[in-house]
């Protein structure tokens, strides 16, 4: 039976009428009582005694009357002799109340056991005498479990699950003591969680995480404890009011129903079947208040789930761990969890305030690796998605700047102006400036782009370009500019296939891991005498795969990231700056300036006057305090292919590709170029360093599919570097996505 319910982050699996599993499993909605007693069960225990039988009621005679009782069934009075349609007061909820229903529902969810299970005291790993006598195990099976049939047990750690895949199995609970053990709830859930640990100089505290963000919570209402007798399969035909006490599975004689008085009897093995299905998408409200589409995609498993795996097991399996280059203190994990919830008083557990609290008496966890398929919407129309994300980002930054300018006006900024770094309002097209070479750069830029547009039939701005001056130093130490060198490539969307670790691969399946990047190296010189042209000498071409990760510890990111936030589309290297800008300088640094400005304004003006929204402050803080990680992987295997008539074919080096003259409109200038394609085999990538050259490719490293969530994102891009003998380097970046189909 597929009884997954959904509420503020709890997902309902979609009903799909395909395959044997879909036809066999029931799909129902929970009743109000079932919902109240399981999903929305509050953190505060009640005084209800489940061990005492309820009172028996007798049927009393009912006297009828032609007059309707003034107290209605719903607890409010119905006006007499007045049309309901004409009375606003007849509706039990006011307009104000109904408009805040979603907020109230969210608050209800925030105070439930399901939402806060990770915060409850957990006796599983303690020496608690009562808890130690409970044994809870999770078993995953190949197909739907059925009474009386032998299940085919599988090891879920050998499989990668994707959207639409079923997770079948059963949970067994055994009381090994000689006395009944009480409980309040049994939850069987499938959860997806982003966990951020406290990293104190490399020491990770997995017991007290900094943040636990549950983006997926699916509850199997059949497997979990409820009062109702639910038909799990379409072949079942049970009485919903029959508790089925004493019913067993003839295959192994396990008890299929738990005591109605919520007691685990001594020596009895209880078994609860479960079925989950990985959803296609997350709920929209998981990304509130921003409602970003990409944040509702199912993210892949990444990082080490230290809270789910014992440290001794992690150490023993260190060599076989998946190297996905994640943050050491952050992970995205999925698991099937079985939790026995009880009152602290029943387990002789002392709480900090001596009040009776809910605790996790026993817990079992089964990690599930999820690698979702790529959303085709982004692959079919990437430019539109990037443009939309860029507009959203610019509007967000404009609102911040407007608020800061308003605050500066309040502090008489005109008489005492504050310096505000408003760079990178949009990362697209940001450039460096140089006054001495500005004119020469402008002429060269115009000529090179005109030539690119003519040859490639594209817009001049649709390129990634790096431009620098080619200089010659004399014996006296003076420097003479001989020309302008430019490295460019068209703006294209490149992608490779996700390659699973060896243990998860399908035998014989081939994966696309190569891309071909068209490159144009241009040289622009003043003068028309070709005999006096001194060409820059090329030393080498290098390529790297940049694995970029960004994470917020607490607050959700307010916008979606694009590759143009990771590097500039154009760079003019006329200074001593050796490295192009990255996400930290283009995005994070300006936001750090914004947060400093806002804090100063609040201190000087007070927020009562400034009225800066709390949500906007959190949004800015999420970016300014974000953590980033860059891992540059060397790509040693690449081929150079020239399509020029004079040098067509493969080349071992850029040096062997000749400079060819290009026609330009400026008669007093000359333009030369080298045009070739760089074909990169990313399956040869490896970490830098001599010791890592033998640990190459995707047998050793894992590139999880590109993704973005509210707290974490993973992006990739290619870095192509041409080094010259003069010591200068030209660098261009091209975006890359890792897709899973």
Structural summary, described in words:
- InterPro entries: Bul1-like (IPR039634), Bul1_C (IPR022794), Bul1_N (IPR007519).
- It holds the Pfam family Bul1_N.
- Residues 18-418 form the Bul1 N-terminal domain.
- With 741 residues, the chain is of the alpha+beta class.
- It has 13 helices and 30 strands.
- It folds into two domains: 4-46 and 77-372, Sandwich (Immunoglobulin-like), CATH 2.60.40.640; 425-580 and 623-739, no CATH class.
- Helix content is 18%, strand content 29%.
- The strands form seven sheets. Strands 16, 17, 19, 21, 23, 24, 25 and 26 form an eight-stranded mixed sheet that branches.
- Strand 25 (660-662) and strand 26 form a beta hairpin.
- The protein is elongated and about 105 Å long.
- The two termini are 29 Å apart.
- The model is unreliable at 1-18, 63-102 and 417-437 (pLDDT under 50).
Biggest sheet statistics: 8 strands, mixed
Number of domains: 2
Overall structural class, as computed from helix and strand content, comes to: alpha+beta
Overall pLDDT score: 82
Distance between the termini: 29 Å
**Rg, please?**
32 Å
Looking at the structure, the CATH topology of the largest domain is Immunoglobulin-like
Number of helices: 13
Anisotropy-based shape: elongated
How would you concisely characterize the structure shown here?
This protein is an alpha+beta fold and 741 residues long. Helix content is 18%, strand content 29%. Helix 11 packs antiparallel against helix 13.
